[in-house]
Write a structure and sequence with these properties.
Elements: H1 16-37, E1 47-53, E2 58-60, E3 63-65, H2 67-77, E4 86-91, H3 93-102, E5 107-111, H4 115-126, E6 138-141, H5 149-307, H6 315-334, H7 342-421
Parallel strand pairs: 1-4, 1-5
Antiparallel strand pairs: 2-3, 5-6
Length: 422
C-alpha cells in the first residue's frame, strides 16, 4: 500500500503537478536570465549616451590639435571595428546631468580639460621634452543601467583607442618628420656656421693686423698732435705779447689824438683872432688909402700954392690944405674912438700871429705824439702778425695731428669691428 506525500501543517497530499512545477520553475527562471544577459550589446538599439567635451586642444608647431573634439566625432560617427548600438549625443554638463537623472541618457562620457595636452605628452616625451601624462575620460551611467556599463565601456574604449591611436600616430610622425627636417636644416646651418667661423677667423686675423697698423698711426698722430699743441701754445704767447703792445700803441695813439685835438682847438682860436686882425688891417688900409688921397690932394694943392693959379695964388692956402691932409693922415694911422687906426690893426695882427704860432707849436707836439702812437701801433701790429702766423702754424700742425689721429681711430675702429665680427 502506497503512502501519499503530505504537505507540512496540512493533511492535503502533494501532487505530481506540484512536484513538476517545483522542478521546472528554476529552469524557466534561469533560461529567462540567460536570454536577458546573452549579447546585451546587440539589443542596445534604443540606448542614448551623452558626450561632454571640456577639452580645448593643444598647439603643436603653431597648429591646434583638438584631440577631445576628434574623440567626440569618432564616438558619434561610430567605428568600423565595433558595432555601435548607442545613440551618441554631443551635450554639455548641465544637460547631461539632467538627462541621466530623468532617463534621457543612460550614460555620459566626459572628456576632461587638458585631455589633448596629456595625450600629446607621449609624443613630446619621444623627443626628450618632459614626461608623458595619462589621458583619461570619465564614464557615468544611470543607477538602473549598471548592466550596460561593461558594454558601454567596451565600445567607448575601442572607439577612443582607435581615434587616439590614429591621431597620436599622425602627430608623432609629423613631429618626427619635422624633427628630421629641422635636423637637416640645423646641419646645414652648422656647416654654414663653420664656414662663417673660418671666414670670421681670417677676418679677425686681418683685423688684428689692421688694428696694429692703426695703433701705430694713432701713436704717430698723438706725437704730431703734441707738437701742434706746443706750437699753438707758442703762437698764443706771441699773440698775447703783440696784443699787449697793440694796447700800448693804441693808448699812445689816443693820447696823441687828444693833444692833436687840443692843438686844433687852439689853432682855431688863433685863426679867429688872425681873421679879426686882418679885418682891422683892411679897415686901416682903407683909411690909409683915403688919407693918401687927401695927401695927394694936399700935395697938388701945395703945388698949386707953390706955383700959383689964376683963381687962388699964394702959399698960405696951400700950407693950410697940407696941414689938413697931414691931420687926416695922422688920424688914419692912430685911429679914433669909433674907427680904430692902422696901429691898432697892426697890434691885433701881431697878437693873431702870436696865437697862431702857439697853436702851430701845440699842433706840432700833438702830431709828434700821434706819430709816436702810430709807430708803437705799427710795432704792436707787426708782433701781433707774427703771433698770428705762429698761431696759424700751430693750428695747421694741430689739424694735421688731429687728422692722423682720426685716421688712426678709424683704422682702429675698423680693426675692432672685424675682430668683433670674426
Amino acid at each position: 500500500m502506497t503512502t501519499p506525500i503530505e504537505r507540512a501543517r496540512t493533511t492535503r497530499p502533494v501532487t505530481w503537478l506540484t512536484i513538476g512545477g517545483v522542478l521546472v520553475l528554476p529552469a524557466v527562471i534561469g533560461g529567462v536570465l540567460v536570454a536577458a544577459l546573452n549579447s546585451p550589446t546587440e539589443r542596445l538599439d534604443n540606448m542614448s549616451a551623452a558626450i561632454v567635451n571640456l577639452d580645448e586642444g593643444v598647439e603643436i608647431d603653431g597648429q591646434l590639435a583638438p584631440l577631445g573634439r576628434q574623440l567626440a566625432a569618432g564616438l558619434v560617427e561610430g567605428s568600423d571595428d565595433v558595432d555601435s548600438n548607442i545613440d551618441w549625443v554631443v551635450s554639455n554638463e548641465s544637460d547631461a546631468t539632467d538627462g541621466v537623472s530623468d532617463g534621457t541618457y543612460q550614460a555620459v562620457v566626459t572628456i576632461p580639460e587638458g585631455f589633448s595636452e596629456a595625450a600629446m605628452s607621449s609624443a613630446d616625451a619621444l623627443q626628450g621634452e618632459g614626461d608623458p601624462d595619462v589621458a583619461t575620460i570619465d564614464v557615468s551611467t544611470a543607477d538602473d543601467a549598471r548592466i550596460f556599463d561593461s558594454a558601454i565601456m567596451q565600445q567607448v574604449s575601442s572607439i577612443a583607442a582607435d581615434t587616439m591611436g590614429a591621431t597620436l600616430s599622425e602627430a608623432t610622425l609629423e613631429n618626427v618628420f619635422v624633427s628630421f627636417g629641422d635636423m637637416g636644416s640645423q646641419l646645414g646651418e652648422a656647416a654654414d656656421g663653420a664656414t662663417e667661423l673660418a671666414d670670421g677667423a681670417s677676418s679677425a686675423e686681418d683685423g688684428a693686423a689692421e688694428l696694429g697698423d692703426g695703433a701705430g698711426e694713432l701713436g704717430d698722430g698723438i706725437v704730431q698732435l703734441g707738437d701742434g699743441i706746443g706750437q699753438l701754445a707758442d703762437g698764443a704767447s706771441s699773440a698775447e705779447d703783440g696784443a699787449l703792445e697793440l694796447a700800448g700803441g693804441t693808448a699812445a695813439l689816443a693820447d696823441g689824438a687828444y693833444a692833436l685835438s687840443d692843438g686844433a682847438v687852439q689853432l682855431s682860436g688863433g685863426a679867429t683872432q688872425l681873421a679879426g686882425g686882418l679885418r682891422q688891417v683892411d679897415d686901416g688900409l682903407g683909411g690909409l688909402s683915403e688919407g693918401a688921397g687927401q695927401v695927394a690932394d694936399g700935395v697938388s694943392a701945395f703945388d698949386d700954392g707953390l706955383n700959383g693959379t689964376d683963381d687962388q695964388p699964394g702959399l698960405a692956402s696951400g700950407a693950410t690944405s697940407l696941414a689938413d691932409a697931414i691931420a687926416q693922415l695922422t688920424e688914419a694911422v692912430q685911429g679914433s674912438g669909433d674907427q680904430p687906426g692902422l696901429a691898432d690893426g697892426a697890434a691885433q695882427v701881431a697878437d693873431g700871429v702870436g696865437a697862431l704860432d702857439d697853436g702851430a707849436s701845440e699842433l706840432a707836439d700833438g702830431a709828434g705824439q700821434v706819430a709816436d702812437g702810430v709807430h708803437g701801433l705799427g710795432n704792436g701790429a707787426a708782433e701781433l702778425s707774427d703771433g698770428a702766423t705762429r698761431l696759424a702754424d700751430g693750428a695747421t700742425g694741430l689739424s694735421g695731428g688731429a687728422s692722423q689721429l682720426a685716421d688712426g681711430v678709424t683704422q682702429l675702429g675698423t680693426g675692432a669691428s672685424e675682430l668683433s665680427g670674426g
